[in-house]
């Protein structure tokens, strides 16, 4: 399982060249649906997290649900651009390459993607401290995407 972050431009070019990033007709209803699912998921996990003890490994799921909400917002943004990809790394590369005005951090996006993969595919459990190390980054990225999607 991979643990290091690849270069942004090399990843973007690989994704474009391999067909992992594809053009798609803009589907406003799907964009709205993805945003609604992301917002509902964030509201749900916020309610659940306030009662979690700090010594619980259930912070793993707070992390994972934030990742899934972020991923849904990224997918919605790509759809507005008339693009799609089933590959999270390619979605991240597209957004960071084509929309520098969003000021998204490639290293953060890739770090949380790799950590989420470790949770899902290697059974990694996260602590409260692990979560706190990612919380601000999630807030910043989710806020940037929310604002941009709302303006669109």
Oligomer: single chain
Shape: globular
CA radius of gyration: 15 Å
Helix and strand run:
HEHHEHHH
Secondary structure: helix percent: over 70%
Tell me the number of structural domains. Answer: 1
Write down how many β-strands occur, each being a DSSP E stretch of 2 or more residues. Answer: 2
In terms of DSSP E residues, the strand content is: under 5%
Average pLDDT taken over every residue: 96
Report the structural category. Answer: mainly alpha
Instruction: Give the number of helices.
Output: 6
> What is the topology, as strand order, of the major beta sheet?
1-2
Largest sheet: 2 strands, antiparallel
CATH topology: Four Helix Bundle (Hemerythrin (Met), subunit A)
CATH C-level name: Mainly Alpha
Name of the CATH homologous superfamily: Nucleotidyltransferases  domain 2
Low-confidence stretches: none
Termini gap? 37 Å
CATH-scheme architecture: Up-down Bundle
Describe what is shown at a glance.
The chain has 152 residues and is mainly alpha-helical.
Account of the 3D structure:
The mean pLDDT is 96. It is globular, with a radius of gyration of 15 Å. The chain is built from 6 helices and 2 strands, in the order αβααβααα. It is mostly helical and 152 residues long.
